[in-house]
């Protein structure tokens, strides 16, 4: 039984044990199996957070807008239309030639779901 995950070897063993449980399927697991799967998953999650951290969010607002466009599979034309601005204005914002005003900041928050705190910090 794995109690902690502190090494790559323990991590690999825990992943292998999780795979065994998943291969059984949840409908074929006992309550004990489900509890063990949850325990192992939490241990793996803690190890991954420490050793494989997710990338930090983009440093600039234009980078964040590009990330959201990528995530939503939006072209620049579609994004400009969604935000109620011209493609030229969006291009200027993305290249750093134009700053974001309050109206556009609200639209970025509402339409692209960029946190208001992030917009204020990076605008």
Automatic annotation (TrEMBL):
Residues 64-119 form the HTH cro/C1-type domain. It comes from the Bacteria. One of its GO terms (molecular function) is DNA binding. Gene3D superfamilies: lambda repressor-like DNA-binding domains. InterPro entries: Cro/C1-type_HTH, Lambda_DNA-bd_dom_sf. SMART domains: HTH_XRE (SM00530). This is HTH cro/C1-type domain-containing protein.
